[in-house]
Fold this protein.
Amino acid sequence: MQVNYINPVLDSLVNVLGTMAAMKVRPGKPSIKTEQSARGDVTGVMSMFGPAARGSIAITFTAPVILELAQRMLRETYPGINEMVVDLAGEITNMVIGGAKAKLEEQGHKFDMSLPTLVAGANHIVMHKTQGKTVIMPFETDYGSFFVELCFE
Amino acid sequence: MQVNYINPVLDSLVNVLGTMAAMKVRPGKPSIKTEQSARGDVTGVMSMFGPAARGSIAITFTAPVILELAQRMLRETYPGINEMVVDLAGEITNMVIGGAKAKLEEQGHKFDMSLPTLVAGANHIVMHKTQGKTVIMPFETDYGSFFVELCFE
């Protein structure tokens, strides 16, 4: 059940952004995604493979949030999304999913992780091709919002 | 070596689009991706996991190509990219990678495949976060171009 994955991902995300960027994140209420309305500017996608389930996780940042994170984590002010910023989104995706994987393994869910694939482009949408449902987890910061999509078979 | 994966993916792609859509595809010369210049409008991303390597494959369509494929495969004329068209891109990605997987298994390379994740958005770029290199394979059709990116550790 993908509901088991929600808290480990949420905890890991709050922990990574708090520790690495001193950014406070306010998690919203997770819900089943019903329309392709969530849009962002940079997305990191990773797949997880385990004996019991396979799934994919996407973290989609809006430009103001990832640019603020770049300022805090790389100490650089960029006027817009460039290769360094996309790379940082990949690094964050990797750390968040890696942290969630460690928590899930403590609970007996063993997984392999894929390499992150990054997508950059203004206002893109992400969809997951699966029989299962997609859970969307919104997050608010002082700089705008971002969201995580979680999709497991 | 990711060079082993090039021909199975290429053959599978030409086969799927030829069989399912009667669309002739002219493969260009694969090359190592050096800049983030390749842009598209719909991308399907899948990961492959094997004992020897893990990697990701992205198939990125420009709008004219995927809309023509929708006309041929779904017998529907859409004015632009909608959920049906994105779903078709996911289906094609699944079939192409599934065909490549079968060929690779014949050669002794066993893999698991992830679920496809789809991205829609005008002129987006795809990047792969890896130590390895990314191979970009361009394809031409009478309706425009599209490309496959292949990235293995």
Notes: Residues 83-106 of chain A form the longest helix (24 residues). The mean pLDDT of chain A is 91. The beta strands of chain A are 26-27, 31-32, 39-49, 54-61, 112-113, 117-128, 134-141, 144-152.
